[in-house]
Write a structure and sequence with these properties.
87 residues; alpha+beta; 3-stranded antiparallel sheet; 3 helices; 38% helix
Length: 87
Amino acid sequence: MANIFDDDRIHFPEDTEMRVFGSIEKLAQWRHRNVGPDFIRIGRRIGYHGKDLNAYLSAQRTDPSTKAAYRTTRSSKSLLLKVIAAN
């Protein structure tokens, strides 16, 4: 996967390129819940290392021919259980 963020740069939540993750508030919620990309504290400021952002985005990648294609819905599971119970 191509790098979206410069690996050697510190990105701040208010930077425009950080909008790929959503709003500044969303990033704050992620930090509070210990989810999302790794971050660093610089005094009272929050920063994200470009290398960590690229790694996070790569980890979020889903191959449609594997995981997404084989997901089952609740209705298909209940239908399968009914068929098994009938036999």
